[in-house]
Specification:
The structure is a homodimer of 194-residue chains.
Chain A lengths: L7 H15 L6 H8 L3 H7 L3 H25 L4 H18 L1 H10 L5 H27 L9 H21 L10 H10 L5
Bound molecules: stearoyl-coenzyme A (ST9) (2 copies).
One stearoyl-coenzyme A sits at the interface of chains B and A.
Organism (chains A, B): Pueribacillus theae
Protein name (chains A, B): TetR family transcriptional regulator
GO molecular function, one term (chains A, B): DNA binding
Amino acid sequence: GKSRGPKYGQIIDAAVEVIAENGFHQAQVSKIAKKAKVADGTIYLYFKNKEDILISVFREKMGLFVSCIEEAMGDKETVEDKLLALIETYFKNLSENYHWAIVTQLELRQTDKRLRGKIGEILKDLLILLDTIIDEGKLQGVFKQEMDKRIARQMIFGTIDETVTTWVMKDRKYDLVSLAAPIHHLLLSGLLKD
Amino acid sequence: GKSRGPKYGQIIDAAVEVIAENGFHQAQVSKIAKKAKVADGTIYLYFKNKEDILISVFREKMGLFVSCIEEAMGDKETVEDKLLALIETYFKNLSENYHWAIVTQLELRQTDKRLRGKIGEILKDLLILLDTIIDEGKLQGVFKQEMDKRIARQMIFGTIDETVTTWVMKDRKYDLVSLAAPIHHLLLSGLLKD
Ligand SMILES: CCCCCCCCCCCCCCCCCC(=O)SCCNC(=O)CCNC(=O)[C@H](O)C(C)(C)COP(=O)(O)OP(=O)(O)OC[C@H]1O[C@@H](n2cnc3c(N)ncnc32)[C@H](O)[C@@H]1OP(=O)(O)O
Ligand SMILES: CCCCCCCCCCCCCCCCCC(=O)SCCNC(=O)CCNC(=O)[C@H](O)C(C)(C)COP(=O)(O)OP(=O)(O)OC[C@H]1O[C@@H](n2cnc3c(N)ncnc32)[C@H](O)[C@@H]1OP(=O)(O)O
């Protein structure tokens, strides 16, 4: 998006809905304009094209998402509790905003490599949060000293992400938030019996 | 695919290459025919359409992939060693068949829900292998008794899958197979210091 203005937020919210309901490829700018109750031309004041809308929406919502997780982590004493707060807040946000979940788990898995690169750059804001937890856990001597940060991050994010994708593919048949505690336990202590 | 014949294998192999190099959406049947050195019409003797080719290719290769993992697991005594054999064979196959990796990590992430459903059904053959390891580990009292099989499976598969996707997105800059041992260790005993 080029710059902000009163209608920016309206367009962003309409875009999430239209993309979630129609899929990115069928989400014409005119559909988004209609849902946002603005003229088609207004959209082009803020966004270059449909791809720019997708990326801007993701960047915007990722900012909110990361702030929300940081806030939940803020008052936790231990690194274990911070990780639990992260997973719980992650699941809670996607449960409460199912349109976000459809967009992140299905529509943002674009095959176009350039677009994927842009999505990856925004995803980094979330992965950096995981890195801070891993660093802190190692520094405090709570986490394994020898473990590779990238591998640990890929395990945590991969587990969360696969759990959310399965939940979306299963049409929210079960409660996602209640999976946070058992996943947290498995990530901390692994498959082996304690 | 409807039935087998001498040219079936040729078409399958050509399809993997064409899809990996051009992306599924740009992989016209005529391109696949040319690469397979068959007439366009020959393809339609075996496959209904491009989507049928994608699904058939995935089913065919998944069969080989799963057999290869089962063979590697076969001579392992402990459930821990079986899990290591699975991860190592998984990474080895995708390292040696980079076209497969591009197709599985990028092109099979289709947003079309019906197509995703079909892909999920084939993926089950791989997930069932994980389930047998989890069941065996629980039965032998090596793995946590109380853990949910689906959550454990989503952790193992999610970790492997995210690791492979990052490696593909990073254009194979580093060795994937050497990540098997540290990932195996993390999955078994978690983030916490032993
Ligand atoms: C050129 C080609 C080259 C090919 C090479 C091939 C070889 C290489 C292969 C390696 C790479 C493979 C990567 C493949 C990538 C493509 C697909 C992806 O995107 S993967 C990445 C994205 N991931 C995906 O796309 C996978 C998405 N997942 C799925 O679609 C499904 O899980 C499933 C179809 C896989 C299995 O489903 P199902 O048969 O149903 O079995 P379940 O046990 O899961 O469920 C049993 C019941 O439990 C419920 N339940 C489940 N979990 C939980 C829970 N945690 N808490 C509570 N409940 C839970 C569930 O609702 C169900 O209840 P109900 O419905 O019966 O009432
Ligand atoms: C409507 C919208 C609603 C939106 C709501 C938003 C809020 C909700 C958000 C929650 C859901 C988020 C889901 C987002 C889903 C979209 C994206 C996906 O598909 S996600 C699922 C699919 N996943 C993806 O798409 C993620 C794919 N990953 C990536 O693209 C990148 O990892 C990165 C861009 C994320 C970070 O990259 P980078 O900044 O480079 O940082 P690194 O530390 O990784 O790397 C540092 C160096 O280490 C090398 N290295 C790395 N690992 C290893 C290793 N294990 N061993 C050895 N070496 C390794 C690496 O080569 C690099 O070397 P060099 O290159 O500097 O020489």
